[in-house]
Amino acid sequence: MSLEVKAVNHRRSDKTQSSNMTDTPQTMQQKRAAFCYRKVKEMAGHKNQDAAKRFKAYANSLPAMVQMNGLGQTLAFAKSKCDSGKPEGIAWQHLYDLISEWHGREEGCYTGQDVLEGIMSSDMHVYRQAQAETQALMVWVKQFARAEIKGSD
């Protein structure tokens, strides 16, 4: 009898643990990591591998650019470099789209907007939040780019 009770309790315990694991909300870091991993994998599998290598290099330099010039200036520069015909343009376009999509999501800083349009239409508090969020996002992008995109560093 006591063995049956223990077995039932053990099964209930397993059920409770597994349902808790699936019901647990993701942390912000997990959401950033999952989003960045998916986006970097897209770039790593791009048919133009020169563009992928450039994406990796630009992902490394973008946080410093944001720190020195601000988010708006950096993204305006990135957008000016977007050109789907050249590897450099493809890489900048993917990086710009990645940041814009992150900020444009439902819980992002500029919901439903292009990131540059959001920067121009929002207040300074939201801008600072977006800049900090971009820096946190780029930590994941840089790490995944180093791991997934082979070639020059």
Automatic annotation (TrEMBL):
Q: What is its main location?
A: cytoplasm
Matching entries from Gene3D superfamilies are given as:
AF1862-like domain
Keyword hit for Ribosomal protein? no
Localization (cell): Cytoplasm
Q: Which parts of this chain are annotated as the region Disordered?
A: 1-28
Q: Where is the composition biased (Polar residues)?
A: 16-28
Q: Which UniProt keywords apply?
A: Antiviral defense, Cytoplasm
- NCBIfam families registered for this protein in UniProt: cas_Cmr5
Q: Which family does it belong to?
A: Belongs to the CRISPR system Cmr5 family.
Descriptive protein name: CRISPR type III-B/RAMP module-associated protein Cmr5
Biological classification of the source: Bacteria, Pseudomonadati, Pseudomonadota, Gammaproteobacteria, Oceanospirillales
